[in-house]
Amino acid sequence: MATEALDPAQAFMAKISDRYKPLHDITARGTSSVQQFYCGATVFLTGGSGFLGKHLIEKLFRATKIAKIYVLLRSKKGKSIEQRLVEMLKDPLYDTLWEDQPEFVDKIVAVSGDVSELKLGLSDKDWNTITDEVNIIFHLAATTRFDELLKKATFINIRGTREILALGKASEKLRSFVYVSTAFSQARDEYVNGEILEKFYTTPIDSKVMIGVAESMDEERINNITTNLIKGWPNTYTFTKAVAEGLVDTMGKDLPICVVRPAIVACAIREPNPGWIDLSCIYGASGYLYAVGLGVAHTAYGKHTNQVDFIPVDYVNNTILVAAWETARNKSPTPQKDEIKIYAIASAAKNPITWSGVQEILANKARYYPTPKAVSYTFAWCTSVRLLYWIYAWLLHLIPAYIVDTILLLFGKKRRFGNLAQKMSKMTIVLSHFLTHQWKFDDRNTSALFDSLSKDDREIFNFDVTNIDWTEYILTLCLGLRKYFVKDGLSGTLYGRKKQMILKIITFIVLPLYFYCLFKFAYCVIYYIFCLFSLFFK
């Protein structure tokens, strides 16, 4: 009996995975300089349950002979840190590890704490254990919500950084410390279309002052002054990350420390599986592509000529791992005299792709790999005009959602689509600042770092953005969203294509009728209002 042919989506991903199989053989040798640096080391990691952190844990165990990783976790939604760790390690991200070295789980120690609390919420016992044993610190934890309240963002992004810097100072065996910031920490209004260098900038407010404000003022009052405090920055996330960088600059002078600034972090390009992405990305650019692929979103707000700075998550973590090695390697006998290096990992400067380029790939290539779970024809109207965006949003999202909610209400069902449409529009507006403006991120330190690597290390810890094939990567992202968000098993692609053809015909019939009905309704409303005014003033 003939073997059933692979689904086109499965075949595409299998082809990419096969291409990277030789990488696993090189990694398995364990002889590269960067790998040797981590051999027998003990790591302390914050943000281990997030997108970057989960992937970094996997990479450390798969590519190095790390001795132990302490992961800072907090109890959440009634689950203990042990329960959260068990659930986290069930992610498909760790499938290869479970198969090849299941004992890795014994080397992960969950530590109870909270980065927003003083001393990171650590007990005295845990604090002393970490400071006695840890060689390398990776501080990834942050609130990445663009609309986070300033008080909370300050406690997590600024005070949390102060507390872990204090932990680093108390760690007697510390060899390297990596603080993960964002390329957009200085993406303020005055630098739009300008260059952001790999250096520390003057902070918008002293970190002590900002922490003092958050600790002493009530939340409502802080909310009232937030707009003035973050003036020039697009949101509380970038503002607090800028202030936190100032803390690293001042408090980190005597530490073996560096800063890594990633741009827009997206799915894995190759490791451990092409397309891997975490559900936490649902509220970012990847989440928007997910909504478009499902046929839920039909509008986009962005400038067609703007460059999109996507960076694969494995490239970001490879930069982090190599930066830690380089920082330890170049530590001088008098660390207070060392320059704290900043490494920006972005793609637009050396391998640019525009927003219109992404749209073209989605429209012409990704359409061959539709999910069978799409609820409508997948299309999106994009504009850089705010008013036009809101017209599109009302016509294609909000009005249809309220109509469906009204029908549900009549049948005694719970309304939900209006709220969903509002959230989607809000997310689009939040992202729009980065899709209607652009900055050029200098990455000379990062380029020099990559050039300094041996041939094997360049393969194992690759972060060379010039080798990204954008068509292939955007398709990998789309299929990764299918696999890890939609969870359709990358099957039913041929059925999905037929379904899209039917939905396209339906859309081309229904949409003109829908617009006509809206026009007639608006015409009638205006006519009757005019008649009422005429009678009133007669």
Automatic annotation (TrEMBL):
Transmembrane domains' residue ranges: 387-411, 505-537
Record's subcellular location: Membrane
Catalysed reactions listed for this entry: a long-chain fatty acyl-CoA + 2 NADPH + 2 H(+) = a long-chain primary fatty alcohol + 2 NADP(+) + CoA
Domain Fatty acyl-CoA reductase C-terminal: 396-488
Cell membrane listed as a keyword: no
Entry EC number(s): 1.2.1.84
GO molecular function, one term: alcohol-forming long-chain fatty acyl-CoA reductase activity
Domain of life: Eukaryota
UniProt family annotation: Belongs to the fatty acyl-CoA reductase family.
Protein function: Catalyzes the reduction of fatty acyl-CoA to fatty alcohols.
UniProt name for this protein: Fatty acyl-CoA reductase
Gene assigned in the entry: LOC111356581
